[in-house]
Structures are given as structure tokens and as C-alpha cells.
Amino acid sequence: MAGNTVEITDANFDITVLKSDKPVLVDFWAVWCGPCRIIGPIVEEIASEYDGRAVVGKLDVDSNRDTAVRYGIQAIPTLLLVKNGEIADRIVGATDKNSIKAKLDALL
Asked: What pLDDT digit, counting tens, does each position of 81-96 carry?
């Protein structure tokens, strides 16, 4: 995985996302998803820009179904924004960088 994004899995979700002391942006995606490929580079850029201020990670729904089911992910890409172990916001579908940054900034 390129850039500063963290690979998030069923195994590390709780420690990486729920127990993080920083806001977390989780990109639920899959290799076969066209819109996910569009939003992927945006997520990478945000990971670089927010390095040290927020955790930005990607979770492959095909490999990590338990977490996707647990959070009711029905369409991808879905971005979850988590703060202090709670879902603070959710973006479903491809969106622009400024929209994502605005939601993340609100949690900083």
C-alpha cells in the first residue's frame, strides 16, 4: 500500500481505529470497485496531508467481511470517520477531496 495509509483488517480494526487517540478515516474498498479506484488516490493524498494529525486507512471488504458487516457497509466506497471509538460521520460513494477534508477537519 502506497503513501501513509494504514492497512486496516478485521484483526487490527479495534486497536487501529477504535482505540486511536487521533481521528481515523477508514476507506472501505475492493479491487473490483470502479469508484473505489477513483477515490483511492484522494485518500492517499489526505493520508499524507494529515500525517501525524489523523490516521487514514483502507479496509478491503473482500478480505475483511466481518468488519464490513459489523458497520453495515452495503455500498463501496464508504468512508467512516471515527473519533474516540465512535462513528462520527460516514460518506457513501465517491466524493471530492474537499468534502472529505471538511469532515475530517471537524474532528481535529
From this structure: 999 999 999 999 999 9
